[in-house]
Amino acid sequence: MKCLIVDDNKMARMAMKQLVTQVKDLELVKECAGAMEAYNSINQQPIDLLLLDIEMPGMTGIELIKNLGSKKPLIIFTTAKKDYAVEAFELNVVDYLVKPISPHRFFQAMERASEALSSNKQEVKLGEQEFVFVKDNGVLKRINVDDILYLEAMGDYVKVHTAPKFHVLHATLKSIEQKLPVSKFIRVHRSYIVSLNKIDFIKEGFITIGKATIPIADTYRSILNKRLNLL
Amino acid sequence: MNEAKYTCKLIDLNYLKGLSFNDTEFEQAIINQFIVQVPQELEWLKEAIDKRNLKRIKSLAHCMKSSIAYLGLTERLHSFLHRMETEAVSKAEDTHFEEDFDRVKKICEQAVQEARQLLITTV
């Protein structure tokens, strides 16, 4: 994973570089003292991950992301302030690290970045394929991804709920999760994956999709909250 | 880095040591950078306060929050730097810039002395 550090504070760049060198498979391409320098660098040499300070003289980190548009890599904010958390998640950043950053927290963010990178690659592959085939009574049936409401684990089987009916597959929820577009689905419980577009409402720890009520496990709650487009 | 040779009153190296993974060259490089960078930031901050350049005060106070953290000075200095930053942002009429700056300067100058001693005793 190729990364770039952007911070106007030299000590912060030195510290970040030290953390980066501890992570296997993370390659530091460049360190920049300003957002404009980073913008030019990314346009010349694409990277996978941007470790980005927010408040910098001239162009801020947030302005840099907006200017990068479709060339935007994965972003991890590294800032001394907590104030930008909401804006950060609206910009779909992978993580938000508050300085002084602990190594433990940094490694956690790197794991997230690594997962997000592989998900993005998968999503690119699945981007053109808006359907999946499932085996149903010996027949391979096509299901449009957009018709899936939610998926439910049942022992060695997974029940795929679509609007008109459900299909039972001999598979694990995890194996199916890997084949679904990350942008459209989210795991909310050990036994449930839901389509974000199909959620009617969320109340007291439960998601309602049509007539179904799906529990949200504590471990998935914060990730779900980040993915919801809360006004 | 053998800090047993010199006991710091202000500097706390715990965070730096956690960050260094026993890389003493890195520890020394950060301490060196602190010695170079912090006095420069203080000078710029003083200029900005004298000129009542609020944008620059905000930017420098914010930047110094990071600089002082690497040598464990956050607890001692954060409140002063934070007040400078927020007063600059809010364009408050009654500010505490001079008072806060004096406090930050005094502690930073002592910390720079300690940092120099740390390097001398460990080279």
Question: What gyration radius of chain B follows from the Cα positions, in whole Å?
Answer: 15 Å
Number of helices of chain B: 5
Count up the domains of chain A: 2
Q: For this entry, what is the oligomeric state of its chains?
A: heterodimer
- Sheet with the most strands, sense and barrel status of chain A: 5 strands, parallel
Average pLDDT rating of chain A: 86
Number of strands of chain A: 15
Low-confidence stretches of chain A: 124-128
The general outline of chain B is elongated
Residue share in helix of chain A: 25-40%
Would you tell me which CATH topology of the largest domain in chain A applies? Answer: Rossmann fold
Q: Largest beta sheet of chain B, briefly? A: none
Based on the structure given, which CATH architecture of the largest domain in chain A is correct? 3-Layer(aba) Sandwich
Record the strand order, biggest sheet of chain A.
2-1-3-4-5
Which pair has the most extensive contact? A-B, 18 and 21 residues
Order of helices and strands of chain B: HHHHH
Structural class from helices and strands of chain B? mainly alpha
